[in-house]
Amino acid sequence: METINTPITTKKHRYIFIDVLRGLAVLWMIETHVVDATLYNSFKQGLIYYLLDLSNGFVAVSFLFFAGSGFWIAATRKAESYRKFETPLWQYLKRLVLILLLAYWLHMPAMSFRVFPNLNMQSWLKFFECDVLQTIVYSSLIALIFLLLIKNLKLLKYFYGLIALAIFLIAPFVWDTELIKYLPIFFATLFSKYPISKFPLFPWSGYFFAGIFISGLFFESKNKERLARVFTIAGILSLIILYYTWQSTQFYPGYQDWWHISPFHSFFRTSFVVALFGLFFLLEEKYKETLFGKALTLAGQESLFIYIFQTDLKNICKRK
Asked: Who's near 215: CB < 8 A, 6+ residues apart?
């Protein structure tokens, strides 16, 4: 699956660090859901839990970001085939349809379509909820449309970067609009905030487009090692600065919910993933032949199936 599981290759070298990071993200997601569902409230306090909880906020961000990386890599290899509407385009669209079907299957209210005529509004909202897989698919379709329209890939990557920036900046205003009152339920769930949807397109699709932009800069760079160092250092510095200055960004609408919707928090999360991107590239030679590296590479290549498994595991833990 190109959006999530595309092997990372170029003509001269195979990069496994993207697969490793996707594997780390999806396994990290299991930890997040299992701990949240099983840990007693009495343990949800103190510095260790605070740091763990803070780290969990980067899980879905990483998953979406590196899905964007996968899109860019596929786009650079198959852009011309896509634009000519050749077989690779239809194969890609079939994969997206499969992911979307699986995404909504995970939200099925019962294992039978007979219940649908009798569903209440709450059940319909749960079924149409915009989750991580939905966000990946719809973001991929939007990115694909622009890929078909804009032929200059060097220009296109900056356009994707502007889309990410716009999504982060506009998200607080979208959240302030109760679209569920004005749009059909299917469309409303794509933009409505929690508890209607956990991962609506605003701001979450921004991380997907940020992944495309950063990957575009990186894979077109002639000196990838130097750029990776810049990503690592700049990402860490930005992360620290944004964390300790968040109160000074309260001038922007949406500051009341800084840890969820403020664009400065979106930049905070993105900074962390960019730092990981650079760091794991720089260390690739040290871990790629280790058991750790091989296990994470496999997890990254099979991330869709692991995601489905961990979602079912999360539901089981909740029921218990």
From this structure: 18, 68, 69, 72, 73
